[in-house]
Specification:
Layout: E1 3-6, H1 14-24, E2 28-32, H2 33-37, H3 43-53, E3 56-63, H4 71-91, E4 95-99, H5 110-126, E5 130-134, H6 145-155, E6 160-165, H7 166-170, E7 187-192, H8 202-208, H9 220-229, E8 236-238, H10 250-268, E9 293-300, H11 305-313, E10 317-322, E11 327-332, E12 335-340, E13 351-359, H12 362-371, E14 389-392, E15 398-403, E16 413-415, E17 428-437, H13 443-452, E18 457-458, E19 462-466, E20 469-477, E21 484-489, E22 501-507, H14 510-519, H15 529-538, H16 545-552, E23 555-558, E24 564-569, E25 576-584, H17 595-611
Parallel strand pairs: 1-2, 1-8, 2-3, 3-4, 4-5, 5-6, 6-7, 7-8, 9-12, 13-15, 17-21, 22-25
Antiparallel strand pairs: 9-13, 10-11, 10-16, 11-12, 14-15, 17-22, 18-20, 19-20, 20-21, 23-24, 24-25
Length: 615
């Protein structure tokens, strides 16, 4: 199907928005009136610019407060409409969006509304324009799509149809099943947006918190299926009001928007209630290839000693070295960490730069990523190096698709002869999860990327209290939990602690692992005594158990089904710290209840270090 995007969904000037939409692969645009008014280009010049970019002007919007008003006001509305229709002819737009009235003078009279819209459509027809009437979720008297359709049907004019907007329909909890009763030729336009599911005024929700399909909680795909069953043949168009998108760069936002429609079309075509084949969008992307585990995590540091010292204290051994690059493989159990000292970074900016994902079909995973507009990364390699495919995540992290048997990338390394010490149950078994802090304007994009490109399932987002604001976090994972990634955005973007990333290691005995780490001289993150006083009030522990947790800085969580989580943290090195984690009883969470305590403890350590001159 053709795709379109409203210029209000992107930041920048009208020219910048049009360029971004075209480069992202959209077929057309909705021109938002304020964007045109602020542009130095004439409507004719905008039409030419769109044509040069290969874009059609699919809609001009919005025209507000037209219908069911006093006669004198309606006469002024017609005068305004005549001017706009002439402008639209110059612009090359043949459909105008008319929103249901919110004017205080509007009356609750469907017959009058139908009569006014019929007269407006008569005028529009003279200019070759169609009128698409949309029910705003906060409309004064018309706020549901079925009510708007009854008025359109009563007006009975060929140049008058309805515009369906997923936000206005789903935000009110309306049943989209009724859409199938509307003839497809009378659905003049379809606007799509997702949104989180907060409790707030619907107008504020609409104006500030819409997002692209797949980033929120609405069943947008289900709504689209209903629309397609009517025979609707127009474009899938995005209309998203979002404060973050309007401050971010237009080009990557447009790519994210286009990706959301590609993924939406795939979902529409694969659901249980899929429309007939003739109405289903043609599949355009390879099938999902869900990763099955972490092959490695790559840390970059100019000075590797603090990192490698910490890894050694954790029980890792430098088991191999890359044959042609300054990259060492540190391993314990199935946990593999690459330490790269070849990249140019600040001395204090050790960070997680790349992740290897075990895949049953690395080539297929890379093909899907490329089809969903993920940036394919060029890779400098020697002729004998494994030809790994890599793409960039929204935060810049490099994602490598690796053969699940490790026969590809592992062949690039030569063994050192070192092996991890045998530590029985105290050892680290594997990487449990990664926590990646996202740039503030990429959080929703990151969620969509990991869901659509990698095929991971997303959990509900949670807010975590930080000493200087809130952190928002959302976890994505594969079905069996062998790949878990926590995506986080902080409220204090200038604070390096907020931007820290971490790797969580799974162990069968976190107490023994923490003791070994402490005895090796690597200090654990100290946790305030008040935390353990609260634990004693909330849970019962065996004799001496809570005292052990207090001694080692181990945090504790229990879920509703009785599963438990015990975890502790190292100090931060550059922008990286490690977590030791023990899950029992099927616990699948990440210890969100403990996150505010951990964040406060990290701030305290950082502040003390700064005051003592240590950083």
């Amino acid at each position: 199907m053709r795709t379109s995007i409203a210029t209000v969904s992107l930041s920048g000037t009208l020219t910048e928005k049009l360029t971004a939409a075209a480069r992202a692969g959209f077929d057309g645009v909705e021109i938002f009136e304020n964007d045109l008014l602020a542009s130095p280009l004439t409507p004719g010049e905008v039409r030419t610019r769109c044509a040069d970019l290969g874009l059609t002007v699919d809609l001009y919007q919005p025209m507000r407060d037209i219908e069911a008003v006093p006669a004198e006001l309606f006469a002024r509305n017609l005068r305004r409409a005549r001017h706009k229709f002439a402008l639209m002819r110059e612009l090359g737009a043949d459909t105008v969006l008319v929103c249901s009235s919110v004017d205080p003078e509007a009356v609750d009279d469907d017959a009058l509304a139908a009569a006014h819209l019929r007269e407006l459509a008569d005028l529009a027809q003279d200019f070759g324009v169609r009128v698409a009437y949309e029910a705003l979720a906060w409309g004064r008297h018309v706020s549901t799509y079925d009510h708007a359709w009854r008025i359109v049907e009563a007006a009975g004019h060929p140049a008058l149809g309805t515009c369906l907007d997923s936000f206005h329909i789903l935000s009110r909890g309306s049943d989209p099943q009724g859409i199938e009763d509307i003839p497809g030729e009378k659905i003049f336009f379809l606007q799509l947006a997702d949104a989180p599911l907060p409790a707030m005024d619907v107008l504020q929700w609409s104006r500030h918190h819409r997002c692209f399909p797949g980033q929120g909680g609405f069943d947008v795909a289900g709504l689209v299926r209903h629309v397609l069953r009517t025979g609707y043949a127009g474009p899938l168009s995005l209309e998203v009001f979002n404060d973050v998108f309007r401050q971010a760069e237009a080009a990557p936002t447009a790519v994210d928007a286009r990706r959301s429609l590609l993924a939406l079309q795939e979902e529409v075509g694969t659901g249980e209630d899929t429309p007939p084949a003739s109405l289903t969008p043609t599949p355009v992307i390879p099938a999902p290839v869900v990763p099955t585990g972490f092959a490695f995590a790559e840390l970059v540091a100019a000075d590797a000693e603090p990192l490698t010292g910490l890894l050694a204290a954790l029980g890792f051994a430098r088991t191999a070295r890359h044959r042609s690059k300054p990259v060492d493989l540190w391993q314990q159990g199935e946990a593999r960490i690459l330490v790269n000292t070849g990249a140019v970074v600040r001395r204090d900016a050790a960070h997680l730069a790349a992740v290897g994902l075990e895949s049953p079909d690395p080539r297929g995973a890379a093909d899907r990523a490329e089809a969903l507009l993920a940036p394919v990364l060029p890779r400098r390699r020697a002729p004998e190096d494994a030809p790994l495919d890599a793409v960039a995540a929204p935060d810049g992290t490099e994602l490598f698709f690796c053969d699940a048997r490790h026969t590809d990338w592992r062949a690039d390394f030569e063994d050192t002869g070192q092996t991890p010490a045998a530590t029985a149950t105290a050892g680290i078994r594997r990487i449990d999860h990664l926590a990646l802090t996202q740039p503030w304007h990429h959080f929703d994009e990151a969620t969509l990327f990991h869901r659509s490109v990698l095929g991971l399932d997303a959990e509900d987002s949670v807010d975590v209290a930080d000493p200087y604001g809130l952190q928002r976090s959302r976890a994505v994972s594969n079905p069996d939990g062998t790949v878990r990634i926590a995506l986080t955005v902080g409220a204090a973007p200038t604070d390096d602690t907020v931007h820290a990333q971490h790797i969580a290691f799974a162990t069968d005995d976190v107490v023994a692992a923490a003791r070994r780490l402490r005895d090796a001289g690597a200090p654990l993150l100290p946790i305030p005594a008040n935390y353990y006083d609260d634990l004693a009030a909330r849970h019962e522990f065996a004799d001496g158990e809570l005292e052990t947790y207090r001694e080692l800085g181990i945090l504790y969580d229990r879920d509703d089904s009785g599963g438990s989580l015990r975890h502790c943290y190292t100090r931060t090195v550059g922008r990286v710290f490690f977590e030791l984690l023990q899950r029992d009883g099927g616990h699948r969470g990440y210890g969100a209840r403990n996150a505010p305590v951990r964040l406060a403890a990290q701030h305290a350590v950082r502040t003390a270090s700064a005051l003592s001159g240590g950083g």
